[in-house]
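hi! just following up on the protien thing from before. the input was this:
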Amino acid sequence: MLPRFKAAAVQAAPVFLDAAATTEKAVSMIREAARAGASLIAFPETFIPAFPVWAALFPPIDTHDLFLRMAEQSVLVDGPEVARLKDAARAAGIVVSIGISERSPASVGCLWNSNLLIGEDGSLLNHHRKLMPTYYEKLVWAPGDGAGLKVVETAVGRIGQLICGENTNPLARYSLMAQGEQFHISSWPPVWPTRRPAGGGNYDIAAANRIRASAHCFEAKVFGLVTAGVLDRTAFEMMAARDPAAAEVLEGTPRPASYFVDPTGAQIGEALQDEGILYAEIDLNACVEPKQFHDVVGYYNRFDVFELGVNRRRLSPAAFRDGPPPSPPAPETAAAPAERG
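and the predicted 3d structure came back as:
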């Protein structure tokens, strides 16, 4: 029998660009979910310290101050904020998935869009950096690497995670399927403007997320958890104060929702669009029957025709080889002269 458990999807706003306060908000929600009987809780994309929506609204030459604040409030994986989350997960006995803006230990200006999976014992189970920032996100974050493209065995099943637009990458999704994924977590921003509303054709993130979540769950025969951020009044007013036109864009751009999807691609229960925590009962045994129809990592493929290679090495700026210098070679012994007869 596969695991049965209660999962929690967070739809919430961070304390805008305040890593310490947002961490405490996350800890409070972890405790709340555990009290409600959840064994797993997932937070939105870069919940700590915020999603940099300003990159869509203002020219980069006008946002140096915001990048400085983002860099200052982004967190190290071995820093105090993540340590606080680990302690909270261990105390509550709950698996935690959370998006962070990650600082580089080698650079004060390099940031990654990352997601962490923390076990119920407080251990770091996976550290994934978004493979490619999307559109204007490239003005804030660097490309990640494949080191976090892993499915992790937990007490509640085999968990995989992808961040936002990575869920549009079929090879990234397949790499998780091929590792026996059973529960897929996708994390999303609070708003994603692509056009001024007056012209029409703005990106409908709610509809796009629904397509992607259903497609992955149907193809992989897994359960899905969709968690999205909220743009609160503080963040809205800060950006509107810079340029009143930003308020029109934000007000006219569709908002995402949080919800669960079953292995047939159908939504489980209602979606959550206001701030809060949404719960669902998950029975991974429901993943088995749909595999009879299509099992793309089992019998329903042609591995002699298709091949996928995935580089999961963690990238670093340099490889240092320290140690003592090599010993000098021993002097050669001169050969004795041959005797003459």
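The two ends are 91 Å apart (CA to CA).
The longest helix spans residues 19-35.
cheers
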